[in-house]
């Protein structure tokens, strides 16, 4: 695929929305940037951008339009190719784990037949209309059962491959590749995949981020996309890292349970919304959470490619970068706790958002304040991390840690951490043996204690210890 050369020199932009977090506004570009400008001025900022009319030159823009015979065209073009569809009984939300939907094989032509029925149902009485039409649909008995089950269902063709450059065999809709072109800003990119997204009725995606850069192109219909920057991650409570859908938020944004997810009360301060119409494209950088609301019979194509940041990170540097990132996060939290201005020598550590001081505490602690102001006073902070506020398991663990340190400093009571005078060879031998023992996790009392704790419990313990040093 290759894209035409247009609007190569210069472009105008307008700020579409304003965000609480400084310097992260989403911009709308009314002229399509060249590949060079996109790669040097837009992509490196890792901030979403809208490109108006980016794909209006595609054949698909006119040929796929459901209001102008596009569904018949798609049906004839693709035919009975079997695709994987998402079926949900809890429409309009399709969550990222298997509990919210199931994936079922479905002939593309069957899905199009279903869409044609819905297109004719202009008064919104979907169930009554489909009941009268279901026997006239030219679909198999199996697909009839899928489309007209016991409960109202909704189908969504999500991420159906048109092209896949990482898996040449996984491209179910390759025949549609002739109707689309690589958008101009991406002409020099090494793409990972190109996918079709098509919903029959109004739908809403779960809130998630992607590990690739993404250009979402609207062929027909309309989508509203709500976005949150990676820095809003603590407020979105992503699912466990090694779980089924670790890139998805566990918060139901329509009615968040603030007793379980108190930080979610501040999400509106981070979010931005953009509305995409047919022909528009949205650049969604890796790591940006997004939720997509689609109008009925909306068709989109997206392009994924790896960012230069992750592509350029060598594996042997992972441990180093992880330590740097952890230190930056710790320094940022300490700056907020102490209300100290960040050093002018390192602007990257400046806290530019109105984040509550409990951003990284356990969401199970229901006593946390959900104040979204510009920070709390020292008295408020102290009340959150005082020793008496610890959960029983955390308090017991802290007491055990203190006891271990006390025993280490008290030579009259032997422990695994006891300090020994090295004045004789015998004592040296014993010391060497003890040092070897300390290298064993099984013999290290501190390690044994910490390994039994949940990470958030360890965090609470350390915060409580830090608070005593800060306030006394």
Characteristics of this structure?
single chain, 472 residues, alpha+beta, 5-stranded mixed sheet, 14 helices, 15 strands, 30% helix, elongated
Structure characterization notes:
The chain has 472 residues and is of the alpha+beta class. It contains 14 helices and 15 strands. The strands form two sheets. Strands 1-2-3-13-10-15-8-7-4-6 form a ten-stranded mixed beta sheet. A five-stranded mixed beta sheet has the order 5-9-14-11-12, with no helix packed on it. β2 (27-29), α1 (35-42) and β3 (49-51) form a beta-alpha-beta unit. α3 packs antiparallel against α4 (108-120) and α11 (392-409) runs antiparallel to α13. The longest helix has 21 residues, at 318-338. The N and C termini lie far apart (66 Å). This is Lysine-specific demethylase JMJ31 isoform X2. It comes from Nicotiana tabacum.
